[in-house]
Write a structure and sequence with these properties.
Helices cover about 55% and strands about 10% of the residues. The longest helix is centred in the last third of the chain and has 18 residues. With about 110 residues, it is mainly α. Strand 1, helix 2 and strand 2 form a beta-alpha-beta unit. InterPro entries: NAD(P)-bd_dom_sf (IPR036291), SDR_fam (IPR002347).
Length: about 110
């Protein structure tokens, strides 16, 4: 939803292979179908990613590096706000992990 969906829609309109990295399979798949229908671009894909989980970030990066020939653009758009204080299973404060640590790790892993 929001900025991420708009960016994905614009990239798909430009005929880019576009990967939506989403926490929710249901919401992500709905966005993929909507973007494919609006653009006629079948190369819009869903991959699950939770940037609050460094394990999820590592798994996502491994899959992208294995499955994709190249990566031209990375848009880090995950973010949460207004959550009550929570700690992830990895012992990190959830907002900090989601908004900063996860995207930082993802970028660095994809740089190779």
């Amino acid at each position: 939803a929001g900025i991420g969906k708009c960016v994905a829609l614009d990239l798909a309109r430009r005929n880019a292979r576009t990967i939506l990295a989403c926490r929710s399979r249901e919401r992500g798949q709905a966005a993929v179908e909507e973007i494919r229908a609006a653009t006629g671009n079948p190369a819009v894909l869903l991959r699950l990613l939770d940037t609050s989980s460094l394990a999820s970030v590592r798994a996502f990066a491994r899959a992208v590096l294995r499955e994709e020939k190249r990566l031209d653009v990375l848009v880090n758009n995950a973010g949460v706000t207004g959550l009550p204080f929570a700690v992830t299973p990895e012992g990190l404060e959830q907002t900090f992990a989601t908004n900063y640590l996860g995207p930082f790790l993802l970028t660095n892993l994809l740089l190779g």
